[in-house]
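Ticket opened by: R.M.
Priority: normal
Category: complex prediction / small molecule

The reporter submitted a protein together with zinc ion and asked that the result be attached to this ticket for the collaborator who will pick it up next week. Submitted input follows.
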Amino acid sequence: MAFEEQALRTETKAAWLQELRCLGCRARLHAGDGNVFCPVCGESWPVEDGIPRFISTFPYWGEIPQENMTEVLSQADKSWRTALLTSSDPSVKRASEMILNLDRANFSLLADLPPQSRVLDLGAGMGAISHSLAIRYGEVVAVEPVTERVSFMRRRFEQEGIRNVRIVQTSLWDLPFPDGSFDLIVMNGVLEWVATGRQGNPRRLQETALKSAARLLKTGGVLYVGIENRFTIGYFVGCRDPHSGMPWVTVLPRFLANFYARRKGAADGYRNYLYSRAGYEKLLRKSGFAAVDCYLAIPSYNHPKFYVPMDDRAFSYFLRTFSANATGLRQVIRRLMLRLGLAKHLEHSFALLATK
Ligand SMILES: [Zn+2]
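Result attached by the on-call engineer:
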């Protein structure tokens, strides 16, 4: 590579790093030799493999257990796709569909976003949503705290030839971005986890996280939240909450859920707060969003085949046309719930689009 070309590439590579802000004093960061640093307060953070690392000690979390991730990563050196598709590990097999599924970002088609939009994917995980959005929009910033998942995404985007995703290793609580800089912010399966391992009231923590998302959005920008419904019908008959692994906690009043969780050995009590549709709307409005559009994500926000507006006629049409296969008791219960106008409130999950 010619020297000028190399210099130009290094320069454009560093340009986006200089858009970042200091976590301490919010000054614009400078790109140094293997780091980014704050010219005002002197704080610095390493840049490895082109990825700024604002956090290095985040506990592992992922669909694939940590011990199996090492093997996946070594296979992914050659091909991230083959690493998933040829694995004989059951946890990898289970997770693969979700990691490969680019339809998980189809919620963005419900928002009116220009093609040059800047997107922030908070909790990007193994990169499926960032991958999909990078094909549709101008630039995607993929935020992920877990080192192994960051490494997986780097391989994935490199091998796919995707050049408009910037990976930033950091947590939801340390976001080095200027206010009003994104058209779309994605929180897919994230809001229910923000209080885990942190002190303080879970609802307050969720509100704080949402307020910081609101700050980072441009006026008219959209926040997407993909999340479970607190009142999913199964939770009333003892199905376990997938986050805490405990039954009953979602539907019980919070103080009882907390008491129950402690009795079951969860030292911090119940932290993974979910809400009803009305509950999410209230939370989002309180956090600075002007309007909230709520869709049912069916069968779930991580495997979305349908986004159905929460309107009686639309939902009834959906059930009759696409979901008429329920039989026996299920059929009877569903018809009853439909007649009572309750059915749409008992579905598994929501896709919420909140406008600033
Ligand atoms: Zn500073």
